[in-house]
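Cont'd.
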Amino acid sequence: MHFAFTDEQAMIAETAKAFFAGQATSERTRAAMAGTGVDEALWQAFTAELGLAGVAVPESEGGGGLGMVELAILAEEAGRHVAALPLLASVGLAIPAILAGGSAEQKARLLPRLAAGGLVASFAEAAPGTTRSDGALTGAALHVPHGARADLFAVVVGDAMFLVERDAPGLALTPLTSMDQTRPYARLDFGAVAAEPLADPIAALAAAQRTGTLVLAADALGGAQACLDRTVAYAQERVQFGRAIGSFQAVKHRLADMMVGVEQARSAVYWAACAIDEGSDEAAFAVHAAKAFACDTYSHCAGEMIQLHGGIGFTWEHDAHLYFKRARSDRTLLGTPDWHRERIARMAGLDEAA
Amino acid sequence: MKLGFSPDEEAFRAEAAAWLTAELGGPFADVRGLTSLTDAPGRRRDWERRLGEAGWSCVGWPKAYGGRDATLAQQVIFAEEYARAGGPPRLNHIGIELAGPTILAFGSDEQKARFLPAIAKGEEIWCQGYSEPGAGSDLANVRTRAWREGVDWVIEGQKVWTSLAQFSDWIFVIARSEEGSRGPKGLSFLLVPVDQPGVTVRPIHQITGEAEFNETFFDGARTEAANILGAPGDGWKVAMGLLGFERGVSTLAQQMGFRNELDAVIAAARANGEAQNPLIRQRIAQAEIGLKLMRYGALRMLTDAEDGRLNPAALTYKIQWATWRRDLGELAMDVLGPAGETAPGGDYAFPALPNLFLYSRADTIYGGTNEIQRNIIAERALGLPREPRGDLK
């Protein structure tokens, strides 16, 4: 038992911290928000130069051969800067789906390109009524994260999962004006689109949900930490009534409560990551706990960031709304905190006979 | 980053579990599962001695002082197994968790040799003389005085909320030893025997109907000159150092007790159908999450401490567990309904869960209120400006 980063993990964290702090600036993120929600230069650097998109892909499949702790580190740092990257869509959802459920041929064909970042994929849950016949999908997927930027989609239809290419005939893609512009949704309409089944859809879905949920929780952790750090800095410099506002208990106690939440979220995220890596019996519980707790914490901290900044926190110019909106997106995707808590309620034995 | 335990550590677990099960299933079956700190004090003292005799009392302490030199992982394991076996709250928890570590950190070799083995062997029970009627959150405002007279320190004053003083052999006291001094200056940290004519312990009945804490009066009480930790007038440093020990491995044992309490809430909810109430399900799930996060938070802090890093996140632990437990008390009552509000025996004494609802109101007060905790977090961890102080009078 040693619940702290190894030297190598600490080094990855340092690298990621410096990378996002240097490159994922507000200015660049805002430029990406006006387009597909991807800072292309940042994605290029993250994938091709640093090789980080495949961090948890085995070396035999062209990846970095590391685990969920390392992936969580990257997602946390991306979240800290609300980085405009398809990290959830491609790295958190599509890659684990293909890795866990793809055939040897599918993995060999797709994973090295996904890990290198040249290929961007997303993950789509088909709307009810979507059907497949003669190898073609008909129907729709309503909210696909970073859908307008993806080249490939892993589409869940009931218990099955299919790969659909962006330029397949019959696929209509509609970018949706989304509240969180760092992770915009798109709508996909399938008009008898060619769809290639994944070999093991059950394993693919489980891996995508688990990894995607962890990535969201880690993003929420980094975001919540940034809300706290930035609001503390503001409370130290902003003076009213002749005092820094951070000297008022009404303000400092709220900041303390934010820290209490953030530190628990940190324990939750790395517990979950580590439990997955170790194949622990607690892994499923831990992932639900991390998502519920970290997303609640992020929502709380982002709301407090606006409130404690006062009027400036409500402006478009200030970054507070980037965090507030990303917190909302993190919370909604892959199950709200209430949904995850209900899963935990079932695991806690509430439905067993008295 | 690693959560699992090694085969050697698992072997240690088996050894600890076997011993605990044999004792708590055999000669000490009567103390197994006790929750209240005031039940069966005589047998609790026997249990302290039995733990000490077998070397299981203070496993993390050096062997030379009656410990076992256990590694952090072993201490974690022992805490888990102790609670799993139904071990009762430790009668000497203040000795083990507060007095002992403080003496280990600030005591002379003679003081360590005099006091530590007696704690580890369960021979001397300790309590804490900090709060006074005029010094609660503002602890540095203590008025109890101490002065040298011949070979002794003489102590005069009053302490309050002294938990378990009625069972204790020793009390550590912060007293003002420099006349005219104010605030944190001029205080001394004294170790004082309880059983003497100058010390009077008067129980205070609390909202549960029990009397776990006391008023303690010092009226010309005496202790030998050697029984001072740190230099005279330098007691505040020792007292503040002690606060750091309140977040040690013992928190893991405490969490296993919380586990038992949450299990009791779940059992009650299953029995009366509240387990199917979606809002109760949400709150139980939130409690499950909070409990796990206490465990993993504690493991993070302990790992950092073992590696020699001071993690400011440790400052968030007190408010976290106290608030969790207070919420659990509320949840328990919402699950139980009116049945929880009636005492089954006729006496004003409630079963474990309703008692938790009442008792947990102390958790967010003692050892630093939630409000003081927030000041500490804001000032020491977040670096916000210090609270302005009124004039000291």
